[in-house]
Design brief:
Layout lengths: L2 H13 L4 E5 L10 H8 L4 H15 L2 E5 L5 H7 L5 E3 L19 H13 L4 E7 L5 H18 L2 E8 L16 H14 L5 E3 L8 H5 L25 H8 L12 H6 L7 H7 L10
Helix pairs in contact: 1-3, 5-6, 6-7
Length: 290
Amino acid sequence: MSPEEIIPILENGVKAGCTEALFTFGEYAEEVPGYREWLKELGYSSTLEYLLFLCETAIDIGILPHTNAGIMTRSELEALKPLNASMGLMLESTAILDAHKDCPGKVPERRLDTIREAGKLQIPYTTGLLVGIGEKREDRIESLEAIADLHREYGHIQEVIIQNFGPKPGTPMENFPEPTIEEMVDTISLARQLLPPDVAVQVAPNLIDPKALIAKGATDLGGISPLTIDWINPEAEWPDVKDLQEKLGNIPFRERLPIYPQYVKKGWYPDRIGGLIEQLSDREGYRKQP
């Protein structure tokens, strides 16, 4: 997407009351034929340079950047930290799986290294498991324990997403079965047991009915966009917040920023977005109500 496409989305997002701009893309964009030339025509020498410009632009417009850019080096994380409220990378699984074959960015140790470096830099961080890609229950336990260990050491994991795999047409796993609701309930229960209490357990309400999962320990429904599709799961429409509240009955909703309240209170955010955090957050670190 070019700046001419992105900037109106950011502006309309602010008008709609959004607080987060999620910047995400696939692995190693520079390897896609023609991409480097396209980037050069825009005036940028790398994806990182372009991303830094977009983060600056988002802040100027009044929306907080959250970057989920796959495997990153310490220097890349250091470059992005001053311009992001939080960052993220799905661990998916610590297991070596056929689903990750030919995807160097999915190697578990490389992903854990990125999450670890983010911890050393005190970046509020989102990670998670992808359930139903060929892993076993023991693998899920190992994955959750690995995340818990990193958080105990660095204190930076704000949320762990427990996401159900959904097969997509035209992919090698298009006929792969989806995880059962029993597997999802069990994984949520494991996450709540194994993760430290200050780490939220998140589920995606456009991918699964969250009510049964909330009863087992899910405490967060992620971001819901009133403007854009879910670019990661474009076939899954976002629910309307009011409809979701009606569906969940007396379970209370409270809007947060892309940086969790405890990190707002601790000041784990860069000076560049300090004014915006102050403008958007209430005394408890949640989203200030208009």
